[in-house]
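User:
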Amino acid sequence: MALHPVVEQVTNRIIKRSRPSRAAYLAHLEAARVQGVQRGSLSCTNLAHGFAAFPANDKLKLKEYKKPSVAIVSSYNDMLSAHQPFEYFPQVIKEAVREVDAVAQFAGGVPAMCDGVTQGQPGMELSLFSRDTIAMATAVAMSHNMFDSALYLGICDKIVPGLLIGALHFGHIPGIFVPGGPMTSGISNKEKAAVRQRYAKGEATREELLENESASYHGAGTCTFYGTANSNQMLMEMMGLHMPGAAFITPGTPLRDALTRAASQQAVAISQQGGQYMPIGHIVDEKSIVNAIVALHATGGSTNHTLHLIAIARAAGIVVDWNDFDELSKVVPSLTRIYPNGEADVNHFQAAGGPGFVIRELLDAGLAHEDVNTILGRGLRAHCKEPFLGEDGKVVFRDVPEKSGDEAVLRPASNPFANNGGMVLVQGNLGRAVMKISAVKPDYHLIEAPAITFDSQEDFMVRYKAGELNRDFVAVIRFQGPRANGMPELHALTPALSNLQDAGFKVAMVTDGRMSGASGKVPAAIHVSPEILAGGPLGLVRDGDIIRVDAANGSLEALVADEVWASRSMATADLSKSHIGMGRELFAMFRSNSSPAEEGASTFPLPSPIPTTVPLHEGMHPEEGMPGSDEDFLFRTQK
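Assistant: Predicted structure:
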């Protein structure tokens, strides 16, 4: 199937837009690469420190300067259900790597916080910037220059993006992402949501709510709804950074361990010493980023990735914006119905065909690039697979089934749930924002109602509980951007807004904050950019202004006369309570230096050219590609 013209057009535009920064990134990558083992550049004193506590046999391999060393970078902690299984992964990895005559070292840990624990709490204001903290912690782990390949253990919201951003700053080193898998299914998502709404009305007790939540989040593994954590896993599959089908195999099972062993040994194979050298900086390129956006739309993934994918791309010198997301969403069909866009959870999705089915359908429909690098080599088709446990206890990969196991959950591209990806860009005199409409009924795609402004979600809830919001209105939640208070998620508002909608009121939300993958049936224009502290017009809105939120036509407008709009002064708010306590004072540098939401809300700059000239490789001619370019890499590896 020929590539869809819109996919091709968007890809070419990204390539052209990114040319200077991508070239700079690849030059950095090539300059960092050394022939032989990475630790070969260390002095004897450096090296002695690097393996002083290592077992004797492993130490001998490191002394030889021949055997590859694999870094383990892990986000393990036992508070996060998704990350608790990583406790025993290092031992599995070390044993698997020894089987192929290499060694593995635990290079370092990265922090991992749970948005489910911090929702509505002060700690949520650290959440987004924990991504950049994780990227820096990854860099610290990899900075010892001991490693020829790496395994990155992470699964949840900011953790995988942070690990990948950090890994891309060591783009010359091959890397594989190793997930832990989802917890087994608990109570239905519909039942869970119903009790939450009853609690918001005061019709359920706190004890009932806690019992309900505990029946949903009940064991080891990631939450089973399709939020940011599981969107991460789908995107790692689509970008070829997982072993095929690794995303949604539950923890503590023989197949989960077999996949971890397979990833460990593949990390050795793609090191320079393994003979199949595939650096992560050559896997994540313009085409793979487009593939990730396509998969996000096809599966109704988290809106957080309109931030994270942009930040990831920029780490590799690739410039993506919301126009790219919007144009791709218009042509990518919706192939899944997973909560909050449906009733099923990710275990049901996996049973129906899983990521491999989605990848195959997108490739066959010409909606994704097949000619990309992955951890298995060249070509995404190798990832249209499903893992099984072989008789010898090792993983075997089989083609995904031709037909979906349940078309209420997963459909082919020829019979989608919708002909678009359910994510739209809205813009106007209030700025630019993202809307996820895959779970919003068409009747609510256009809301025109008076504004009520709030400077926090707590302010909203006080007025909601007092019965002051029983009317048509657009909630304008201001001062929630990255520079203001770290851009927290505002999930505490979802049950209340849902109740108001169910009561027959026309309601919508406009905010410079986040709603992530759990945004549901209430229309919400989120990530409004620029935010007020960057001069954004959201600060000009006054109570009573008629606000139009129009997903169908991509409009986000305050219906205010131009002369009135121009005469207004910017709203102000006392943000000091969001800057002190719960460690928030330590994150002042992130708030001060954050880029706009449409640039990933990141504190890291795009790669810039290095002043030194990288020499041509011996036997290579200039017309065969500049050193460090993707063409040069393919030329050398194919040689």
